[in-house]
Amino acid sequence: MKLLKLIFLSLIVASFAIGCDGKDSGPEWEWDDPQDTPQDQPQDQPQDQPQDTTIVEEVVNVEPVLANWKEVTSDYGTLPSGIKVYKSPAKSLDKMIIAYIAVADLSSVTFDLWSISDPEIDGTTESFKTPSKVYSESKWPVVINGGFFYSSGSKNYTSSLAVRDSVVLAHNINYASEDWKKIYYPTRAALLGYGNGTFEAVWTYYNNNDAVDYVYPQPAENKWGASPMAVPSSTYPQGAERLSATIGIGGGPLLVRGGKFVNSYEYELFNGTSGIGPDIDAPRTAIGVTADNKMIFFVCEGRQKTEGVYGLTTADVANIMIALGCVEAINLDGGGSSCMLVNGKETIKVSDGSQRAVASTLMLK
């Protein structure tokens, strides 16, 4: 019953696209319950074949970021000594860009998150909040938007994993469809932090039957139009572990793992009509960590809020994060959700014209 309820709730929204199309609720779809009229069954997967995560071997030559970007920390008042803020050069990757990064030394800076809580996937009456609302309540020096979300009726839902103090507040959405006849079960990206201070970018899946969030070193290789892959479990994809993070945020696609650019947006089903347009220029938000224990919050402007600035693709963001020194990074919600506040002051111009209320935020102090 729980799996049926979860799938039904998801069918009221085009999966995770809300963050990039400006909609506050899903379209009024009409369809049969996929459990009653199965059109395509997931294929059993052999367990002796390694998975291909489609790692891009070469990255674009991006200029050394901190040598060319301008430090603008002082423009935002007093910040903790371990946090610095930089603005991008006017052009990068042959595009006009406006982007900001907050670079935090995790040896002295605290990373935290806020999220609506819906671990049972029933929806909640807890309100979404704008980043400014989060700032007003807690005065965190740096706040950015977090994962994907949607509303249905009188309830709010998050489509992205959120873990705080080792408690799972929400799960990455674990199914997707373009016609609501063929149902897919994608693994989605998350950045997880552990008690020893390390972070890693992984793929996760919440298995309803096991009531477990599994973590994987590679994604399930789903693709729109192909037969759905097996429901992820303790044995598929290979290398599954139970989630044991102390803090974590979901989103996607995964951008950087082990210092390499990972191009997994097709496997995560972020392309197509219900996706986030990973290969088009748009406002973006991302988070990453470097080998020397620094966390980087990234946002870029888009949709010509400033003339000529359209935004970046997720591949562009991956290249920039690698140039910044990130060894692990994921994409977060973008479009009208993209926002970074420093001491309560906006950095980029948000593409909706005003801040969007979101289901989760990430903070530094």
What report would you give on this structure?
This protein is mostly beta strands and 365 residues long. It contains five helices and 25 strands. The protein has a nine-stranded antiparallel beta sheet. The protein has a seven-stranded antiparallel beta sheet with strand order 12-11-17-13-14-15-16, with no helix packed on it. Strand 9 and strand 10 (155-158) form a beta hairpin. The longest helix has 10 residues, at 314-323. Residues 1-53 have low confidence and may be disordered.
In short:
With 365 residues, this protein is mainly β. It is 10% helix and 29% strand. It has a nine-stranded antiparallel sheet.
Largest sheet: 9 strands, antiparallel
Distance between the termini: 42 Å
Query: Whole-number radius of gyration?
Result: 19 Å
N-to-C series of helices and strands: HHEHEEEEEEHEEEEEEEEEEEEEEHEEEE
**Number of helical segments with 4 or more residues:** 5
Helix content: under 10%
Rounded average pLDDT: 87
Query: Would you identify the regions where 5 or more consecutive residues have pLDDT less than 50?
Result: 1-53
Shape: globular
Structural class: mainly beta
Task: Provide tags for this entry.
365 residues, mainly beta, 9-stranded antiparallel β-sheet, 7-stranded antiparallel β-sheet, 5 helices, globular, disordered N terminus
